[in-house]
Amino acid sequence: MSDSDDKKSEKDETIVCRCRDITVSEIEEAIDDGCDNMELLKRRIKLSTGTCQGRTCVDLARRVLAEKTGKSPSEVKLTRTRTPIIPVPLKFLGGKDE
């Protein structure tokens, strides 16, 4: 195995999303299967849907997507934030049982 193969293997196993345990290779595989934007990656592999809501993984995933699709990271749009359709009391969002 050459040095470039070793580097590729290491990169593939790099964890991008610690909340969901998503690796670079999983992101690349989803891109190869047609997920060519952040919204599709979110829906397909649940990227940025963990506890941190993407605060720790979105930038790295965005770079992986940009590199794989030949775009610059600034050309890769982020996912949309969705608010509840009906008003929800804050106690429900905060996890209070009262």
Automatic annotation (TrEMBL):
<protein>
    <recommendedName>
        <fullName>SoxA A3 domain-containing protein</fullName>
    </recommendedName>
</protein>
<dbReference type="InterPro" id="IPR041117">
    <property type="entry name" value="SoxA_A3"/>
</dbReference>
<dbReference type="GO" id="GO:0016491">
    <property type="term" value="F:oxidoreductase activity"/>
</dbReference>
<dbReference type="InterPro" id="IPR051691">
    <property type="entry name" value="Metab_Enz_Cyan_OpOx_G3PDH"/>
</dbReference>
<keyword id="KW-0560">Oxidoreductase</keyword>
<dbReference type="Pfam" id="PF17806">
    <property type="entry name" value="SO_alpha_A3"/>
</dbReference>
<feature type="domain" description="SoxA A3">
    <location>
        <begin position="14"/>
        <end position="93"/>
    </location>
</feature>
<dbReference type="InterPro" id="IPR041854">
    <property type="entry name" value="BFD-like_2Fe2S-bd_dom_sf"/>
</dbReference>
